C-alpha cells in the first residue's frame, strides 16, 4: 500500500476536503495519451488508489503502461469503537490523498482508445468521486 517513508508529524488536522482551487501542475497529461480526471474534489484512500491500479492493469493485460499521478500523503486517525468522547485524538489508521476538481489521477499510454476507455470506466466505478476520461489532442 502507498504511504510516505517519513513524515514531519504523526497526525494531521482534518482541514478541507479539497473542493477549493486546482493545482496547475496536475491538469494536463504529461506521460500517456489518455487519462482519468477528477470532476469533483474529495479524499481518496491509499487502498482505493491501489485497487484502481489493479483493476486497470487487469483490463490492459500486459499491454500499455499506467502512471499514478496522486500519492496519499496525509494521515487519517480513528478512535476505537465504543470509546467515550474526549481523551485526545485517535491513533493513525490510514493514508489519504486530497483531490481537487480537474486534477489528473491516472494516465494510460501505449494502448488503443477502446481499451483505455474500458480501463477508465472500471476506474470510475472503484473511485468514490466523479471522474472523466480525457485524451491527448
Named CATH topology: Aldehyde Oxidoreductase, domain 3
Distance between the termini: 33 Å
Please state roughly what percent of the residues sit in beta strands, choosing from under 5%, 5-15%, 15-25%, 25-35%, 35-45% or over 45%.
Answer: 25-35%
Q: How many structural domains can be distinguished in the coordinates? A: 1
| The CATH fourth-level homologous superfamily | Ribosomal protein L16/L10
Largest sheet: 4 strands, antiparallel
| Residues in helix, % | 10-25%
Number of strand elements: 7
CATH architecture: Alpha-Beta Complex
What does this protein look like?
Helix 1 runs antiparallel to helix 2. Strands 3-6-1-7 form a 4-stranded antiparallel β-sheet, with helices on one face. The protein has a 3-stranded antiparallel β-sheet with strand order 2-5-4. The radius of gyration is 17 Å and the shape is elongated. The model has no long low-confidence stretch (mean pLDDT about 90). It has 2 helices and 7 strands; from the N terminus they run E-E-H-E-E-E-E-H-E. It has a single domain, classed as Ribosomal protein L16/L10 (Aldehyde Oxidoreductase, domain 3). Helix content is about 20%, strand content about 30%. It has about 140 residues and is of the alpha+beta class. It has helices spanning about 45-60, 115-125, and strands at about 35-40, 40-45, 65-70, 75-80, 90-100, 105-110, 130-135.
Summarize this, please?
The protein has helices at 46-60, 113-126, and strands at residues 34-38, 42-45, 65-68, 74-78, 91-99, 104-109, 131-135. By secondary structure, it is α+β, with helices and mostly antiparallel strands.
Amino acid at each position: 500500500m502507498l504511504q510516505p517513508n517519513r513524515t514531519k508529524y504523526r497526525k494531521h488536522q482534518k482541514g478541507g476536503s479539497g473542493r477549493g482551487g486546482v493545482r496547475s501542475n496536475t491538469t494536463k497529461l504529461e506521460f500517456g495519451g489518455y487519462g482519468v480526471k477528477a470532476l469533483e474534489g474529495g479524499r481518496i484512500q491509499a487502498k482505493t488508489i491501489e485497487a484502481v491500479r489493479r483493476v486497470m492493469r487487469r483490463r490492459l493485460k500486459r499491454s500499455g503502461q499506467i502512471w499514478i499521478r496522486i500519492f496519499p500523503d496525509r494521515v487519517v486517525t480513528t478512535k476505537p469503537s465504543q470509546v467515550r468522547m474526549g481523551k485526545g485524538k485517535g491513533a493513525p489508521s490510514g493514508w489519504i490523498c486530497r483531490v481537487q476538481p480537474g486534477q489528473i489521477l491516472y494516465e494510460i499510454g501505449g494502448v488503443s482508445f477502446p481499451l483505455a476507455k474500458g480501463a477508465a470506466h472500471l476506474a470510475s466505478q472503484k473511485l468514490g468521486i466523479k471522474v472523466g476520461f480525457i485524451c491527448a489532442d
